[in-house]
Amino acid sequence: MVKAINEPPKGYKAPNYEKARTMLLEREKAKVQRALTRFTNEWVDSGVSIVSDGWTNIRNQHLINVLGVSSSGAVFITCHDSSSIIASAQNIANLLLKSIKDVGPNNVVQVITDDAANCKAAGKIIKRTHPHIFWSGCLVHTLNLLIHDIVKHKECGWITELYRRGKQLIKFIIGHTRVNYFYGAYSKLQLLKIAKTRFAS
What we know:
Blueprint (H helix, E strand, L loop, with lengths): L1 H5 L10 H30 L1 E9 L5 E9 L2 E9 L7 H15 L4 E6 L3 H13 L4 E4 L1 H14 L4 H19 L1 H10 L15
Parallel strand pairs: 1-4, 4-5
Antiparallel strand pairs: 1-2, 2-3
Helix pairs in contact: 3-4, 6-7
């Protein structure tokens, strides 16, 4: 890319700062908006789910992503920096209600959040404001909690032991170059590392 920038086609003149930040930027924005209308037009006919997920970035800011998900795919709607506010049910509901208003309340079918108590309460607030919109907990979060509860039982102690031994085995194979080579050469199975569960979005 750097080589291409340093050797532009003969006669090419790069846009100046003013043109890049006004006319060219507006043109690109319009192009993106046209691409998004393919998704948003479908929302009127078949509806959209508002999906939210909280996460913390590398600066330790707590952010809440909001997406619109329909059968045609997911569209990023907005992101809220919620570091300065308390994660109460009312505050979460206010953020989601703003997104519902932007999308159009008649287009929204459901709101999906994680299963935390404050998110459930936010779902009830949204339901009171818009009775046709229902709240759903994130299935991944529900399954994660369910499996966590199953493993806690004494009768299922073997699952914890199996998990521990599997983790040790993967660590051994990945940590030794020759063993990793032989595993890759003779096994069709892929080694999977444990990853953090991503909720909602």
